[in-house]
Design a protein that fits this description.
The chain is mainly alpha-helical and 178 residues long.
Length: 178
């Protein structure tokens, strides 16, 4: 997939987070204890696992997948024909069906807002993973996790989701004039 110039600039924070997480994980890996947190619940670490590349860098691999998925969604959002540009003539299965069966952006401007919001959401997810990795990559296994950790991990995702919803609402309210 060739990324449009409108998406490339918004990918820079994501690329920086991904590169930083990967480098930090590779540097920290040899210094990790033999057992690392596998799951962190509200009461702290409640499951441990043996250190392996997969267990230690799991968040990095997950972030790579999320980045690919949300980047593809952003790019496809920009490539689809906005509903304001669809022809008024009858489509093979009826114009109403074509307009209703796809959740198209109304205009190219609103498509750009939605694509940027998706990439901002991805950066917010990366920040949450960065916080999780900071806990997981501690040199000393600790069971007690500070109470602020869960809100600190969720807050960026909530902010990114709110931004994405706001872009979608903006899209629905954009005039559909040609």
């Amino acid at each position: 997939m060739v990324l449009s110039s409108r998406v490339r600039l918004w990918l820079l924070p994501n690329a920086a987070l991904l590169t930083g997480l990967l480098v930090w994980g590779i540097v920290r890996y040899p210094h990790l204890p033999s057992r690392i947190p596998e799951h962190i619940g509200s009461e702290g670490v409640d499951a441990w696992t043996n250190r392996s590349v997969g267990s230690a860098l799991g968040f990095v691999f997950l972030y790579i997948g999320v980045t690919v998925l949300l980047t593809a969604c952003a790019e496809l959002t920009l490539r689809v024909t906005p509903s304001a540009e669809l022809p008024d003539g009858a489509a093979p299965f009826g114009n109403a069906l074509v307009r209703a069966s796809f959740n198209r952006p109304r205009t190219r401007v609103s498509a750009l807002w939605v694509a940027r919001a998706l990439l901002a959401l991805n950066a917010c997810i990366g920040i949450s993973f960065l916080i999780a990795c900071a806990v997981m990559w501690h040199s000393v296994p600790e069971r007690d996790i500070p109470g602020w950790l869960f809100p600190a991990m969720i807050a960026p995702i909530v902010a990114g989701t709110a931004l994405t919803v706001a872009a979608a609402v903006y899209d629905r309210r954009a005039p559909a004039a040609h």
